[in-house]
């Protein structure tokens, strides 16, 4: 039995175990091993690597709020994760914990074909870093707003315009993205409701990385925006993660199984 996991806080809501275990169950023969994927609630980011090794994991996903810690604790980092300094996938290779980021491609999956010139991103954690990188790769002008100033330093160093959420300019953006946990466990919004209403009146699309209906998305729909929740991103990044866990399994089979599981 090979064990895999997802680390986060909170973690009970995660659909990742459902998706990955469906693939392990369907393709045990093709994989050549039995796999099991578990959710793990973590309190202290400093314990992330210790827990990974202690549990004897072959691979793991890392979600909010530990993606930046995962980058720092990796023995080796590959791909765009090096650029954004945030890791959401770990694989054990030759005794080394190797980090990747599959959020970037995952985020863009439902946006194919849309014309985007300007975007506003709420939040400044590891997911926000991936979102900003993804949007910039498409030539989109991005502004970042966050409730606290500390994490904005990373974006300022990248010459990304940044504001505290309370000072967020009420300008016209094609896309407004919520990468915060607002709405995950409660009815909160990433900024004051009056500001969000003003932003939505001028926007076209709203995207929440949380994969259920949130107050953010509901308010966007009241303003007739086209909305996206995190389900498409969840599946897209999960397929890319599974490709690291089991690179010999056809990714189209993984995608089909995960889509059917979440339908």
Your description of this structure?
There is one protein chain. This protein has helices spanning 16-26, 28-31, 48-54, 67-73, 81-84, 103-108, 126-137, 152-157, 193-200, 215-222, 231-245, 251-262; strands spanning 2-8, 35-41, 59-62, 76-77, 89-93, 96-100, 118-122, 141-146, 162-164, 175-178, 205-208, 226-228. The mean pLDDT is 97. A six-stranded mixed sheet has the order 2-1-3-5-6-4, with helices on both faces. A six-stranded parallel sheet has the order 9-8-7-10-11-12, with helices on both faces. Helix 1 crosses helix 12 (251-262) and helix 11 packs antiparallel against helix 12. The radius of gyration is 18 Å and the shape is globular. The chain folds into two domains: 2-101 and 232-262, Rossmann fold (3-Layer(aba) Sandwich); 106-229, Rossmann fold. Helices cover 38% and strands 21% of the residues. It has 263 residues and is of the alpha/beta class.
